Amino acid sequence: MGRHLSERSRQIRELHQKGLKRREIAAQLSVSVNVIRQAVEQGREVGALEPFRPKIKERCQEYIRRRNLRLGSVNDVLSALSENQILWLINKTQKAEEETIAGYLLELVRDAHASATGAAKSNIKH
Prior knowledge:
This protein has seven helices and no strands. The protein is mostly helical. It has two domains: about 5-70, Arc Repressor Mutant, subunit A, CATH 1.10.10; about 70-120.
């Protein structure tokens, strides 16, 4: 954490810590999402950024257990979709400039939650 950070790395870290999504940071700094992803991963590796919220995940797993649900996986979701639905999902994922289907599904959930609660929506390209 005592290492000297470049101005760009400092900007990325500050925006990430404010809760901005990788896509939002990339747009604000006029760089690719991949640059942001790499910077965040490197920040976590050197301890400049916190690891991905393991305490929240543990707490949610307890809620899931209490309600007799399973966590499942993206593979479970894909297995239940038709080929046309999967192709649609792949196209939407790429259009949204997400690197993974999981990332796109995450943004869909965030947008649905924002609609239901009145919170700010993401900038996902539907």
